[in-house]
Specification:
This protein has about 220 residues and is α/β, with parallel strands linked by helices. Helix content is about 55%, strand content about 15%. GO terms for molecular function: DNA binding.
């Protein structure tokens, strides 16, 4: 029988360290070899016990789990690094991935997700896994595809005020043809066929706060 996967737990809440440690130790192929309550203690513990997998909280008193991930990833590309957090938004997911984490798990996820992530990290430490990654990628792609340039946003605001292409061009010192090109790109980015659809979409995704009654 092969040796169990050695795990280091880093979390500034003793209850979580003890509870999660007990859950992991119930698995025959996992064994918690050390725990730590801060970034500094966690890095020191890693250097002392050299575990195969490190599971770290994101927010701690003396730094973040990303500090742990970056530091340990520089030391080894073979250690599995799991970020465990209450704050599982898209920004945190991408930050963990870019820092070099092997996985990202929300604290509201079932313990089985942490166990699966630890096993994955031990085998494929450089392959990032996260249950919410696909959704986060789709939201980022959608945001990027609808991002307007500063000039396009200026045109959109004037469209919302009810101005036509010629009037917008005069206000922004653009030719009418250039203004129409900007309007066409705005419609394309917002998936709109006309001004009304563009303004509705822009309001929905937060590009506009108000639309003048004269807009049509």
């Amino acid at each position: 029988m092969s040796e169990p996967i050695s795990v280091l737990l880093i979390d500034d809440h003793e209850l979580i360290r003890n509870g999660l440690g007990a859950v992991l130790d119930l698995e025959p192929d996992l064994h918690v070899v050390a725990t730590a309550g801060s970034v500094a203690e966690g890095i020191a513990a890693y250097q002392r016990v050299q575990p195969q997998v490190v599971i770290t909280d994101l927010q701690m008193q003396d730094g973040t789990g990303l500090d742990v991930v970056r530091t340990l990833r520089k030391e080894s590309d073979q250690v599995g690094l799991i970020v465990l957090t209450m704050h599982s938004g898209d920004e945190q997911i991408f930050a963990a991935m870019q820092a070099g984490a092997s996985g990202f798990v929300g604290k509201d996820a079932p313990s089985t997700e942490v166990i699966k992530a630890a096993r994955h990290a031990a085998v494929s430490p450089k392959a990032f896994v996260c249950a919410g990654l696909v959704g986060a990628m789709m939201r980022r792609q959608s945001a990027e595809s609808t991002a307007l340039t500063e000039r396009e946003h200026d045109v959109l605001v004037l469209l919302a005020e009810g101005l036509n292409a010629a009037a917008i061009g005069q206000k922004l010192y653009l030719s009418e043809s250039t203004t129409k090109s900007h309007i066409a790109r705005i419609y394309q980015k917002l998936g709109a066929a006309n001004r009304a659809q563009a303004l509705v979409t822009a309001m929905r995704i937060g590009l506009l706060s108000t639309v003048q009654p004269s807009a049509r």
